[in-house]
Amino acid sequence: MGIQEMKSQQFPEVTMEEWQKTAEASLKGKPLEALYTTTYENISIKPLYSPEEAEAARAEQYPGEPAYTRGFFKGGYIQRPWKNAHSLLADTPTRLKEKLSVALQEGQNAVSFAVEEVPNMTLAEFSGLPVNEQPLYINTKEHFLAIASFLLKGEAGKTSGAAGTDLLSLYAKKGLIPGEQALALQIEAIEELKEAFPELKTIRIDTVPYHEAGANAFQEISIALAEAVFWFERLKEKGWSPEETAENIHFHFAIGSQFFMETAKLRAFRKAWTALCDAYSITGDAVKVMVGAETSAFTLSKLDRHVNILRTGSEAFSALVGGVGFLQVTPFDKVNGQSTPLGERIAKNIPLILKNESHLGKVVDPAGGSYYIETLTAELSKTAWEHFLTIEEAGGILSILQAGTLQEELAAVLEKRNKDLAVRTKSMIGTNIYADLSEQVPSGKPKPEVLLAENTVSSFKEIAKKVNDQTTLAELHVKDSGSAIIPVKAQRLAEPFERLRERAERIQSSGNTLEAGLICLGKLKEFKPRADFVTGVLSTGGISVKSSGECQSAEEAVQFVKESGLAYYCICGKDEAYETFDPQLIETIKQTGAAVQVDLAGRLPAEAEVEWKKSGLDGYVHAGQNILEKLSALLELWEGETTHE
């Protein structure tokens, strides 16, 4: 076919009804709803979205128009490019300055670093950083008052960007509600910085601690709005208008691995934020708040850690499609305790690849018009707004933290996420599926803690007076003050699986061989699917396998058991093979004299199970099983041997 003939080809239009009929026919009797999935936000995801749904969901036609779902600026990144704000890790101020100089030459365009890594930085060393040449973007954490003091020693009006601490989420992670003294000091410093640096955003609303405790997308949005209300109302007491407060706020989100949901989260946040601004009569540029994001540490794994590069790359892509002003990519190996030069280089370069090779900076709202994303954004913003209203009706963000209701909500979502990984309805490559038995779990050595001062002061001015060129961040630390609550506790998704592998390594280091036997019934093509499945499950727990090969009789199976002398076996075959060999096979194996545990791959019908259990069958390895519980119980077999020895 020639090029002209190809150009003239016509494809018939397909109606939604025709698609539904074809889909239902392929499902062989199952309803179309079988293709629907439910997210952690309790949003039902359909297999197909139509223009009509997207049209109903779309609130505005163009970017740069309220409700700013499509972005705060008409030209998107063409008008306002995002900042590559890679958070540099350095153990000394000298090393930080060196790394920052190299990073800025290689494409980074914001001064960003992990403040907690350099608590011994002095004012003189901080002053040597180019904070007046590039926008600042740092999470000051425990050192906000110190950083504020350092900044105020510099030239007024020069510094832009964002530098702040979310006192609410920082304290919630520690299991505290900030006391009045802590809030008063924070506000005093914010006021001083507002006068000196009008282009610097110092009220940080950081939802990362909630994200790392399991929060879903609408919870993150609603918590962000609730924290904004807290600051609106709190600063009203100091004479600030809501518009002035909004002009000084910057929001910071973590971006997880659910690509479309995370893109929709950022778009839905802008829509919900605009609604909140309307409620407070905030208009104009004050609505166009700064939004930054980091790729999630929650989704990183120590196991097969190079897969983290794919995770962070996808998350960065999602963040940029959703629209952020500052982007931080977490190094793939930071989860080990200390990132390598390779990890930092890749983290710094991912946004550059997305900008210069994927050309994301040249497209205004790349998600705009997607039937799926537009519909998802609308549903998410609606759900987030409703949840925000429940927070406010309960008394606001501090009230639900004090009552523990927010912590309960987050724990419930985290439990669901953990369970989905445990039963493998969700996959985490290299962690709960396709595990690499040859690797060891990296064990990062904890850094020695720097002793922070425990100053008790009555005003921010007292802190500022202490500052000279040799004063360090650690010296200006102020003692935490607050009331105890249930902590907003962070846990990476991979941690339960990492603990399994660490147990396996301890068993092997004691001299035991962590190996299971596969008793394979029938021909290779008959037992291979289940044998492969069991091999994959066991490798997740650090257990290797030894296969019997084709067993055509019970005698061959027993001979394999006698020769291998292992503590655990799993019988693998088709259901028909289980009927052929019958429960007598278990009895024969158990009569070899060895104290062994024998499981079966798959599940038996209820009536057959009774007989097999009577014969000594110990359990199963099957799809939908909680493999964390199963593997933990299996490791006890070898741990028992270690204890006995």
TrEMBL record:
Keywords: Cobalamin, Cobalt, Isomerase. It holds the Pfam family MM_CoA_mutase. It comes from the Bacteria. The keyword Isomerase applies. Transmembrane segments: none annotated. SUPFAM superfamilies: Cobalamin (vitamin B12)-binding domain (SSF52242), Cobalamin (vitamin B12)-dependent enzymes (SSF51703). The keyword DNA-binding does not apply. GO terms for molecular function: cobalamin binding; intramolecular transferase activity; metal ion binding. Its cofactor is adenosylcob(III)alamin. InterPro entries: Cbl-dep_enz_cat, Cobalamin-bd_sf, MeMalonylCoA_mutase_a/b_cat. Residues 116-474 form the Methylmalonyl-CoA mutase alpha/beta chain catalytic domain. Belongs to the methylmalonyl-CoA mutase family. This is Methylmalonyl-CoA mutase. It comes from Bacillus aerolatus. The lineage of its organism: Bacteria, Bacillati, Bacillota, Bacilli, Bacillales.
